[in-house]
Amino acid sequence: MTTNPWQYFFDRYATRYDDEVFTKNTEVEIEFIIEHTNTPPGGTILDLGCGTGRHSVPLAQHGFRVTGVDISEGMLEIAQQRAGEAGVSIDFIRTDATSFMRADSFDTVLCLCEGAFCLHNEDDDTLRRDETILRNIVTSLKTGGTLILNALSALRAVRAATDETVQSGQFDPMTMTERSDVHDLLPEVSNVGKLRERYYTAPELRRVAEDAGLKVTGVFGGTAGNWGFRPVTLDDYELMLIGTK
Question: Could you give the residue ranges of the DSSP H alpha helices within 2-153?
Fold first, then answer.
């Protein structure tokens, strides 16, 4: 697999990832997942963009059969260590989310905290990449299976943008993408390349999910630590889409 900027970044950021504030409400998020996906006891869950396994491992501890997919070897090493310490078996796979599918295999798919979705390389088509991920998810879900997915909210991004960030190319309103060299996160690394994040409005996110074949339950405010069936606000970092196949 050719290293891309996101893989390069997460390999080097893996040991710091669980220090982020948005990782601190995992227990409540696990309760939400179990309550609102109706995954049967011992059922199958795909954690797409599983990172350090902070959702995969507790779900396996609840008795679910979990597959964790991530592009970053560094993140997966921590996830595997965490699973070993917890005494659970998880099928961890290193690959790009655009390449992974297992037809009719999962009762539930999770794609949380921009786990692959919204994270683009410079030459990615800013719509087609995420559409491919959604089609793979629909293929991988069993009929009646549930998806919970987070996407970056365009409302907050637009409010934060300025003429200067648009003129500099940092924020592009034509593609709803933001570029970053992540020196604020990895100041000691100068060769990470440009990272690009894609933002969505709620209607657009619903449309691309429905076009992929999902029956969308709703799009809600999905900022980490504040999940719930609540309206989207202008301050939400993330949207949360829930849908079924």
Answer: 5-17, 26-37, 56-61, 73-86, 128-140
Query: Which among 98, 171, 166, 162 is positioned nearest to 136, based on CA atoms?
Result: 98
Are 245 and 235 in contact, with CB atoms under 8 Å apart?
Answer: no
Backbone angles phi, psi at 34, to 5 degrees: -65, -40
* pLDDT tens for each residue of 65-119: 999 999 999 999 999 999 999 999 999 999 999 999 999 999 999 999 888 899 9
Tell me the one-letter amino acid at 165. T
Q: Which residue has the tokens 């893996």?
A: 14
CATH code at 5-154+199-244: 3.40.50.150
Output b/e per residue, 41-51; b: 16+ Cβ within 10 A. eebbbbbbbbb
Alpha carbon 19 to its chain's center: 18
* Amino acid at site 38: N
Taking only the tens place, the pLDDT of each residue in 130-176 is 999 999 999 999 999 999 999 999 999 999 999 999 999 999 999 99
pTM of the model: 0.94
Domain ranges of the chain: 5-154+199-244
Evaluate whether 48 touches 111 at the Cβ level (below 8 Å): yes
Amino acid (1-letter code) at residue 84: G
For the record, the structure tokens of 104 come out as: 């009719």
Give the list of residues 6+ apart from residue 100 with CB closer than 8 angstroms, or none.
48, 69, 93, 136, 140
